[in-house]
Amino acid sequence: MRGEASEPPALHTMPTALIQLVSEQPMPNLLALIALRPERVIHVCTPRTALRSAQIAEAARQAGLTPEFESVQLSPIPGIQKTGGAVRAAIRDARTAEHQPVVNFTGGTKLMSIAAFACAMNQKVCSLYVDTDDAVFVDGGSGPALSTLLGDDQTFTAIARRLTVNSVVVAHGRERVTGGQDWRPLLTLGRHLLHHRTEEQATHEAIHGQDGLLPGGHEPRDPAGWLQVLDRPLILPDAVIALSAEAGVLDLSSGHARLPQSSRAELEELAAHHVSDFRSRYYNAVAPLQRSLTALGGAWWEVCVADAATRCGFFRDVRWAAHVGERRGFDVEEDILALEGVRLVAVSCKRAGAGKQRLVAHLAEFNARTEQLGGRFVRRFLALAWPPRGRQWEILQEKARELNIRLLTPETFERPDAFAP
Fold first, then answer.
1. Number of domains, the chain
2. Is residue 2 part of a domain?
3. Over the stretch 145-197, which tens digit does the pLDDT of each residue have?
4. How many angstroms separate the Cα of 421 from the Cα of each of 134, 303, 404?
5. How far apart are CA 116 and CA 104, in angstroms?
6. Residues near 219 by beta carbon (within 8 Å), at least 6 away in sequence
């Protein structure tokens, strides 16, 4: 890092080349990318973070950015000289290509960060630190002012709306995020069950009770079993039947409340004949039945919470029942995902937990899973339609505080401060 560097041209006259250190936490890299909108990006990474570099590149594309990407891979534990050499070479290449280099020294190991910052100082290059805790870009003071690129407002406010749930989750390693489902058709039914708890319990018993449609929640394993379920009428409160039919959850054409009959012909075909594409056809035939059963069995609570999260004014890009996972492989349905500023928001909704231990275990599992979706900056909520009481509730609250997960109940989820930071 010796030698004097020539003074670079003014920033505003040249396209930007963003030089970044990559670590396990991708948000500092993604946020700098979105804010600076560079023409070229050079990622300095280690073997451990090489994949993260590719994921950040894909997240940038999800956010509508298509810069040229280059990944420079160092040794597993690079020292100051190696890192400095890589950053210096990237600066030289950027200037040769008539790009204005900007160094983001936020990521990497401490030695890598020190080396990148020292190199930026020596080369008189604009540099920045991404302060995710205070939601601001900090000028490294090593060259031309960061304000010549970002203006006077160097908070995350200006870039927050360029982010989506997709870009944040993809940056953390997931390949695919669906848009979720529209909860509005189910909202009237959901709010009725919320405010008529006796009818909600009767509905749950009619589906999952000992004499219910699916005792203990166990679904049929073949088309013949589902056909038997289609034949059985549901004994439900009159208001629940009417609202369910209005929402498309139940079919009343026979004079009785039954599950939607649109899959009957397909299930009869699958039960009577061997078909080569059985799995996909069976899945598609059963899916609408499962949606109806889920709506009455607990998703009614999810739609109430999703609606409250949308109306609270703190979140955007609110998604209910979005699937997160691989493009052509395994995925997981998340109850509610959203964004608050540049942070991912995740809400897990439970009608009721089967005792203290199960809910406490769910908190730990939920915490770990959502960290893989949005890193350590995720805001987490657990919404309970039927929360436990007494000592069980106290233990659950203690665990939630320990994990920084906010608990929501029917008495609190619609308060003005329920989702407040």
1. 2
2. no
3. 999 999 999 999 989 989 999 999 999 999 999 999 999 999 999 999 999 99
4. 13, 22, 12
5. 8
6. 225, 290
